[in-house]
From TrEMBL:
Residues of the P-type ATPase C-terminal domain: 823-1070
Keyword field contains Ribosomal protein: no
Claim: DNA damage is one of the keywords in the record: no
Similarity comment: family membership: Belongs to the cation transport ATPase (P-type) (TC 3.A.3) family. Type IV subfamily.
Protein name in the entry: Phospholipid-transporting ATPase
InterPro entries: ATPase_P-typ_cyto_dom_N (IPR023299), ATPase_P-typ_P_site (IPR018303), ATPase_P-typ_TM_dom_sf (IPR023298), ATPase_P-typ_transduc_dom_A_sf (IPR008250), ATPase_P-type_domA (IPR059000), HAD-like_sf (IPR036412), HAD_sf (IPR023214), P-type_ATPase_IV (IPR006539)
Taxonomic lineage: Eukaryota, Metazoa, Chordata, Craniata, Vertebrata
Length: 1103
């Protein structure tokens, strides 16, 4: 960041203007009085976060911004500064362990980033200098350099294409590393550039760097001797992005316009907004409670200490006289010091190591999703992808699912079904159209087919004689054997390939585009050529695209295709009625429909359109708005030819998946840009709407109905929702929704949203159609911020779904045919919709139960650990005497009890995956953060208090006669603490063993290994005189303790008594319903305190 800021400062006035001027090849143009080269940043890429010099301070600063780490740092400093009862090592060592592990992890990740940066920055590239090809390191490229790139190489910076080895001046690139799309994109050279680039004198004026991959505005001034400078517009089609790869083109030359951290790829490095799970919020709430308990304990002990010392003879007994310094110490300062000492003594109630364990559980647990073989799709040879591991448990808490339709619920695998031409329904039999009426409409029929062959951006991919042809749609290759006159196609949308192949069935074949000439072969096998004049590109706002072509006879034609809602207002009204019925019928049957129109342009009309398009494309400011204005001007007064019907089949197991999600208690909303009839048919096919579902529709036929919208909402919301066995579905379109979200009249916006939400929340499924991408995100945000803050999940496959994927608590990307932008921006990516069922019902369920148990267990075992220490102060005159040795204080959370709970949180399956998938209703049992509510938390806290009291007073009962050895030797206070600690370690470990339902060799190893390690360590620590210790409190204490039969007996009895309540509850409690005992026994104990009557009677896995 510092380097980037310095570069910007060195760049002079670069940021004070809206454009930059670049001299191609660093050659001054003739009309420049003084050539002063501009200063831009170098081509060095820096994705790393640290350097050797700033790693330690920067990493420590970031780690101590966490409240828990900062708290333990304060405790450590208090132990160092103040005379506290425990050694600073007891707090310092665990803190050091946590900080070190985190620093090593982050340092390793940054080393990988440094390595990746060096591979990019040191890569050798070819640059033209003084007519020679010179090899340079990539980081030394400067803005204005002319760079040579050969086939299959990646572009080292953002380049303007000047020259290509292809005769038509084009090149093909793939942008898989940028947006995941591996289809071949066509880019074009700047017209009228010199073949000899050394003789080219030109300047480029373009916009300042900005991160939008698909937007670029600029113009190029080409200077030739004794001629006026030629001005050529530059757009995204001329820009080759860093990270993209050159394909099917031997060599290109381009001039660098953006380098280093100003390339579009680098500007897209910025991460997504941080999402926090509900578990993390619960941890913070519980931490606050335990912090209050800690402060309360310190206040109570400090108060009681001075109350006790106020009695005569207690403050200064004869055997412990105060020094003069102690007598002169300020009373309030002494009280504050004692308060800090008690805080230090009891600080272990805050589990600092829990944060490390949670991070490790999330990180390691995410691999189970990646490794799951059920998520592997043989078609694309890919499995699931985890982009963030911070939300694993959130997969088990989803309440609302927002899904796209095309490519998510459906396959996005289009097949041309039928069409309607001039109001007559036509279908296909044996390579000929069959019309329901006499074929006097052959002229319109052929015009319609020509429109399908010309109005698109499809590229033809010729195959060799022995090759297998493929149709490439955004990286998905559909393989098929080569037939006569059959060729592969490359397109950015499967709709376009379906329409072109549909026209092929009916005798019109698109042969390709060569040097702005489009060739088609008609039914008589004659080749027709059309000169491509302009392409009016598709965009989601216009929802249509057009081409302007010129026939050999000189006629200028405009062909347009798009959604019926965008075409109908732009054609003659009398033509709409003939087509509308067929469009609505096809939409009802679930087909995707497009309308096709044309217009013959006069010479004057084309001249105006051509001038407007060229001027708009040369504009540096508001280019897109100016282009759309020209598009709208020329796309009027068209003649409607017909409409197409394309089938998009349902995804595999889409209906079963949606049914399972609804059975799990989730509410499914379909957010789509398709028309209502098509989307409604898909919802019925997916079983979101059942035959008995009562559908409530909220649409406005005209703007005049706006004033009645509030009354419609009020009427719908006032109905009785409590009707038995009646499901409701709600349908709303984008136009109505925009009014609901942004009302402009008398009723307040919150009232609109409140009524709308009230209706939606009482419906099992909601369909929002004709929606823009921004509206999808608005819907998700509205539900996410509604009362109760429900957990939301968005799933989609295209770029138009990115906004709602980023907005939801959990974003799922489908590796589909609409590119990989959704995958790049998602938290999790899966190959197909059917995998969502296992991701939520199995993985999500298990992740939540595991981490919920981990969090509660950590607080419980630390309460058990520190409560005897608190009780001990009542019997030692509040002298801050520790009950446990410093080694035990230090290693309790790090070594003795950490590994069993980590293994449990990774491997536990309280119910088998098969049962979870077969019984979606089990998902409801953990909904609404059920295991981390205050009721389970109270249970764990009471359990910790009970066992802590039992540990302390049970051992105190044993010490009523301290002569516990055969030789009459008396046990001391360190023996007392060691017995308590031994009972504690065995009890909390065996408690976890009782909760474990799915045993593996790893569980056995860490549970019994941890207990064995504790025994070994205690013998080892107390059996040797350590020279670095000033006093050795546990010398032979553990061995002497185990030589007493009474100590053995008390340890065993106390462990049994501590675990007895849970064992009795398992034995005595009677489950309700057939087979419910198996379910009941399969759940961890804290789960039993949830309302048991909600658990469904099913047979559960029993390991």
């Amino acid at each position: 960041m510092l380097r980037r800021r310095l570069n910007r400062l060195c760049g002079g006035d670069e940021k004070r203007v809206d454009s930059r001027t670049i001299y191609v090849g660093h050659r001054p143009c003739p009309d420049t009085e003084a050539f002063i080269p501009s200063k831009f940043c170098d081509n060095r890429i820096v994705s790393s976060k640290y350097t050797v010099w700033n790693f330690l301070p920067k990493n420590l600063f970031e780690q101590f911004r966490r409240i828990a780490n900062f708290y333990f740092l304060i405790i450590f400093l208090v132990q160092v500064i103040v005379d506290t009862p425990t050694s600073p090592v007891t707090s310092g060592l665990p803190l050091f362990f946590v900080i070190t592990v985190t620093a090593i992890k982050q340092g390793y990740e940054d080393c990988l980033r440094h390595k990746a940066d060096n591979e990019v920055n040191k890569y050798l590239v070819t640059v033209l200098e003084d007519g020679r090809s010179v090899k340079k390191e990539s980081e030394k490229i400067k803005v204005g350099d002319v760079v040579e790139v050969v086939e299959d190489e990646t572009f080292p910076c953002d380049l303007i294409l000047l020259q290509s080895s292809r005769e038509d001046g084009t090149c093909f690139v793939t942008t898989a590393s940028l947006d995941g799309e591996s289809n071949h994109k066509t880019h074009y050279t700047v017209p009228d550039t010199e073949k000899d680039l050394q003789a080219l004198t030109a300047t480029i004026e373009c916009e300042q760097p900005q991160p939008d991959l698909y937007k670029f505005v600029g113009r190029m001034h080409i200077y030739k001797p004794e001629q006026e400078p030629a001005v050529r517009s530059l757009g995204p089609e001329n820009l080759l992005l860093k990270g993209a790869t050159l394909k099917n083109t031997k060599k290109i030359y381009g001039v660098a316009v953006y380098t280093g951290m100003e390339t579009k790829m680098a500007l897209n490095y910025q991460g997504k907004s941080q999402k926090r799970s509900a578990v993390e919020k619960s941890i913070n709430a519980f931490l606050l409670v335990y912090l209050c308990i800690l402060i309360s304990k310190a206040v109570v002990c400090t108060t009681l200490k001075y109350v006790w010392q106020s009695k005569e003879g207690q403050d200064e007994p004869w055997y412990n006289q105060k020094t003069q310094k102690e007598k002169d110490t300020n009373m309030y300062l002494k009280m504050f010091t004692d308060f800090l000492s008690f805080m230090v003594l009891f600080n272990f109630i805050i589990p600092v190591s829990m944060y490390v364990t949670v991070e490790m559980q999330k990180f390691l647990g995410s691999f189970f999703i990646t490794w799951d073989k059920d998520f592997f799709d043989p078609e694309i040879q890919e499995g699931a992808l985890v982009n963030t591991s911070d939300l694993n448990e959130e997969l088990g808490q989803v309440e609302y699912v927002f899904t796209d339709k095309t490519g998510t619920l459906t396959q996005n695998n289009m097949e041309f079904i039928e069409c309607c031409i001039d109001g007559f329904h036509l279908f296909f039999i044996s390579c000929h159209f069959v019309c329901l009426f006499i074929s006097i409409y052959q002229e319109k029929e052929e015009l319609f087919l020509r429109a399908l062959c010309l109005c698109h951006t499809v590229q033809v991919k010729e195959a060799g004689s022995e090759e297998v042809l493929t149709d490439q749609v955004d990286g998905i290759d559909e393989m098929r054997p080569q037939l006569e006159e059959e060729r592969g196609f490359i397109a950015s949308s499967p709709d376009e390939i379906a329409l072109v192949k549909g026209a092929m069935k009916y005798g019109f074949t698109f042969l390709g585009l060569e040097s702005k000439s489009m060739k088609i072969k008609n039914r008589e096998n004659n080749i027709e050529e059309y000169k491509l004049l302009h392409v009016l590109n598709f965009d989601p706002v216009r929802r249509r695209m057009s081409v302007i072509v010129q026939t050999k006879s000189g006629e200028t034609l405009l062909f347009c295709k798009g959604a019926d809602s965008s075409i109908f207002p732009r054609v003659k009204p009398e033509e709409v009625d003939r087509i509308r019925m067929h469009v609505e019928r096809n939409a009802t049957e679930g087909y995707r429909t497009l309308c096709v129109a044309f217009k013959q342009l006069s010479a004057e009309e084309y001249a105006v359109a051509d001038t407007g398009l060229r001027e708009a494309r040369l504009a540096l400011q508001d280019r897109e708005e100016k282009l759309i204005a020209v598009y709208n001007q020329v796309e009027t007064g068209m003649s409607l030819i017909g409409a197409t019907a394309v089938e998009d089949r349902l995804q595999e197991e889409a209906a079963e998946t949606m049914e399972a999600l609804q059975g799990a208690g989730m509410k499914v909303w379909v957010l789509t840009g398709d028309k209502m009839e098509t989307a409604k048919s898909t919802c019925y096919a997916c079983r979101l709407f059942q035959r008995g579902t009562e559908l409530l529709e909220l649409t406005l036929e005209s703007q005049n109905e706006y004033q009645f919208l509030y009354f419609k909402l009020s009427f719908l919301s006032c109905r009785s929702w409590s009707t038995a066995n009646q499901d409701y579905g709600f349908i709303i379109d984008g136009a109505t929704l925009s009014i609901v979200m942004n009302p402009q009249h008398e009723v307040d916006a919150s009232q609109y949203k409140s009524l709308f939400l009230q209706i939606c929340q009482n419906c099992t499924a909601v369909l929002c159609c004709r929606m823009a991408p921004l509206q999808k995100a608005q819907i998700v945000k509205m539900v996410k911020t509604s009362k109760g803050s429900p957990i939301t999940l968005s799933i989609g496959d295209g770029a138009n779904d990115v906004s709602m994927i980023l907005e939801a608590h959990v974003g799922i990307g489908i590796k589909g045919k609409e590119g990989r932008q959704a995958v790049r921006n998602s938290d999790y990516a899966i190959p197909k919709l059917k995998h969502l069922k296992k991701l939520l019902l199995a993985h999500g369920h298990l992740y939540y139960v595991r981490i919920a148990h981990l969090v509660q267990y950590f607080f419980y075992k630390n309460l058990c650990f520190i409560l005897p220490q608190f009780l001990y102060q009542f019997f030692c005159g509040y002298s801050q005497q520790p009950l446990y040795d410093a080694a035990y204080l230090t290693m309790y959370n790090i070594c003795f009890t950490s590994m069993p709970i980590l293994a449990y949180s990774l491997l536990e399956q309280h119910i088998s995956i098969e049962i979870l998938l077969d019984n979606a209703t089990l998902y409801r049992e953990i909904a609404n953060n059920a295991m981390l509510r205050w009721r389970p938390f109270l249970y764990w806290t009471l359990l910790g208090i009970f066992q802590g009291l039992l540990f302390f007073f049970g051992v105190r009962f044993l010490f009523s006669n301290p002569a516990l050895q055969d030789n009459g030797q008396v046990f001391g206070n360190w023996s007392y603490g060691t017995i308590v600690f031994t009972v504690l370690v065995f009890t909390v470990t065996l408690k976890l063993a009782l909760d474990t339902r799915h045993w593996t060799w790893i569980n056995h190893f860490v549970i019994w290994g941890s207990l064995a390690f504790y025994v070994f360590f205690s013998f080892f620590w107390g059996g040797i005189i350590w020279p670095f210790l000033k006093q050795q409190r546990l010398y032979f204490v553990f061995a002497n303790m185990l030589s007493s039969v009474s100590a053995w007996l008390v340890i065993i009895i106390l462990i049994i008594l501590s675990l007895l309540p849970e064992i009795l509850l398992v034995v005595l409690r009677k489950p309700r319903g057939p087979h419910s005992r198996q379910v009941y026994l399969s759940l961890p104990f804290p789960f039993w305190i949830l309302p048991f009557y909600h658990i469904h009677p099913i047979l559960c896995y029993s390991p």
